C-alpha cells in the first residue's frame, strides 16, 4: 500500500465495506427510516427491503448471499463512473478495452477483499436513514445514513447518486466525509506512473491493492 494518513486508512476500509453492497449496510436488522420525500430516498428504502430479505434468508449460504446481493447492487452502483473518478485524469489515456478490463478488475477486487466483512456488517449493524438530503447540479443528490456497529461506533455515510431514467445510480460513497473515489485516486495515479495502464490493470486484477485496516 502507498503511505496514507491513519484517518484515511480507517475511512478507506469502511468505504469499501459499504461499497461492496451499498444497499446492504442500509438493510441492517434494525432500521429507522425517515419518511421518504425524494425519489432517491424512496428507491433507497426499496433497496433496503430487497437486500435485507436476501441477507436474512437462512436457506442461502454466504457465497450465495454475496452472489445475489452483488448482482442486485450491480443495478444501482455505477462501477464505470466510480472507476473513472477513482483513476482521475489518467482515465482519459485508457482505451475502450483497457477501461472495460479495469472496471472488471476493480469490481472483482472489491468483492473478493470486502465481501465477508460487508455481509457481516449487514447482519450486525444498526442503520438509521437520516432525513437530510443535499442536491447538486444535474439532478445529483446525496442521501445519508448513520451506521452504528456492534461495537458502538457510529459512521455517517453519504451516498451520491444521479438519475438514469427513473433509476438513481450510486457513483460515490462518503464515510464521515472521506470519499471512496478520492482516497484511491493518488494510488491509482501512482500505479499508472510506475507500471503504465496495463500494469495497473494487472495489479488490480491480482488484488495488489490490499485491504487496509
From TrEMBL:
The keyword Signal applies. Keywords: Signal. It holds the Pfam family MlaC. The keyword DNA-binding does not apply. Residues 1-33 form the signal peptide. InterPro entries: MlaC/ttg2D, Tgt2/MlaC_sf. PANTHER family: INTERMEMBRANE PHOSPHOLIPID TRANSPORT SYSTEM BINDING PROTEIN MLAC (PTHR36573). This is Toluene tolerance family protein.
